[in-house]
Amino acid sequence: TKSEKKKKKKNPLKQEYEPQPGECTTQTPRPFSDLFWLFVFSHVSAFNKGTDLEKAMATAALVFYNATGPDGKLSGAQAKELLLTQFQVFTSGQENKPKYKEILADLEEKDKTLDMEDFMVLLISVMVMSDMMQQIQAVKVAS
């Protein structure tokens, strides 16, 4: 029946495994499916008519909120896991830098939580100190 088919449809915004709030998983988060992006692109106006920067920020927000618990925050351990699995281009090669070590140690504090603003500051901080910045600065995109 139609009602049974509706129940069987999967929500493209939900991951198959959802960690509990405060739980840090050791598995790499599942990449977003094509169905997820189709849903997002059709429902979030920034993706339909936004600039490249607006699309990038909206994507960062989606990744953050897909990983948070009901309170809209990440534990420090969750933030570290997300940083190490979803931001690898920028974290690669940073392991011996004192500031990077300090950031990771801060995330390991027991009661540490990050809201969206804290998470975005974390991303920007890691990006700015990364070895990738020289390559990014060298690229000039034609307008």
TrEMBL record:
Ranges for region Disordered: 1-26
One Gene Ontology molecular-function label: transition metal ion binding
S100/CaBP-9k-type calcium binding subdomain domain boundaries: 53-92
Biased amino acid composition, Basic residues: 1-12
Classification via InterPro entries: EF-hand-dom_pair, S-100_dom, S100_Ca-bd_sub
CDD domains: S-100 (cd00213)
Protein name: Sentan, cilia apical structure protein
Source organism (scientific name): Erpetoichthys calabaricus (Rope fish)
Phylogenetic placement of the source organism: Eukaryota, Metazoa, Chordata, Craniata, Vertebrata
Gene giving rise to this polypeptide: SNTN
